[in-house]
Amino acid sequence: MNPTTFPGRALGEASSRPGLSVDRLGGVIAVLIGIAVFAAPFVTYRANRIVAGEARMLVEAVSPILAGAVLAAALLAAVAAVVVQQPWLRLGAAALGLMVVTPSVGAAAWFLTPPGNTFARISPALGFWLLALALGLLVADSLTRLRLGPWARLAALAVAAAFVALLVLSGAWNGLSILKEYATRADGFWREARQHLFLALGSLLAACLVGLPLGILCHRAPRLRAAILPVLSIVQTIPSIALFGILMVPLGYLAATVPLAAEVGIRGIGGAPALVALFLYSLLPIVGNTVVGLAQVPAAVVEAARGMGLSDRQRLTQIELPLALPVILTGIRIVLVQNLGLATVAALIGGGGFGTFVFQGIGQTAIDLVLLGAIPTVALAFTAAVILDAAIDLANGHD
């Protein structure tokens, strides 16, 4: 019998051959850890922010004691990933590894930077990113096996966020080049962060205000559904930068001919075309999931509500929408994660957001400036996905 078919066993869990208990996903994690600590550079040293870097292995990047601690924590995590089946032990080994590895990359910056040198740049290299990826996979796999409820997952997210905040606020990472890039652009960073959130959340809110009623109408009127959904599907096929460019023409004309439009900020470039484009991209998941969610409400439940004398509005608000809520929230989750990523492209048309740093960094060949925009974007998308996944479980009645 295939070992993956045993009841209660996850796909990545141990093989059941006699005398052998090896976790297959753990084997991949162990290989990544081995490459990270023995074959890949831990950090990159550059004399200034734009010159080519010099790779430094783990044993060269930090003090011997710290290198030994990182190596020991990494090997412990690798062994736990391969042979340990208890999720809490796997999670503990991964968490210990992250608690040792993440401050170590900051320590490497102080260790390698000559005293008084303000031009040198230290960046995490392939070894660090592979090690962080492997430990992150082990954490995710352990949490999956624990089958945590929504509140526990939110608590785990809060702990992770608090740990990262502690590293940043404590100054442990201040020597890294990405934090040096942030230090010179702190005001601009938070301005672009607000713009990024405005584009993503503003377009989502507008799409909900339009898409939810439209989805209800499409559910009630099949002919309207047959006309609306194909049009929204076509919008989804248009590349983002192309849609941004297409919208520049009518919005520019509107700003030029309607003074009030220009006064409220509508222009051919900037945030207006980006916001409209993200709104258009958001409609299909919200409208489609609203239609699907309402269609999945059992007809017997609706008939029972009708027999109890509930009006159409009462049936919709008290019966149908609450039962369809998990599916609708799934569409909102898709939209929010999608928009947080697409908002990065808005910088190409002057829309601002974290994409400003990404494209500035590409133009200046400054990878740390690229990361200054990319890492917060990924972090926001990941956080939004976890929170909305928990909300979906709660809507389904899972505590």
TrEMBL record:
Q: How does it sit in the membrane?
A: Multi-pass membrane protein
Read off the Gene3D superfamilies from this record.
Answer: MetI-like
Name where it mostly resides: membrane
Q: Which domain of life is it from?
A: Bacteria
Source species, please? Microvirga subterranea
Q: Which GO terms describe its cellular component?
A: plasma membrane
The protein, known as: Osmoprotectant transport system permease protein
Keywords, A to Z, come to:
Membrane, Transmembrane, Transmembrane helix, Transport
Q: Which family does it belong to?
A: Belongs to the binding-protein-dependent transport system permease family.
Localization (cell): Cell membrane
Q: Which PANTHER family match?
A: GLYCINE BETAINE UPTAKE SYSTEM PERMEASE PROTEIN YEHY, GLYCINE BETAINE/L-PROLINE TRANSPORT SYSTEM PERMEASE PROTEIN PROW
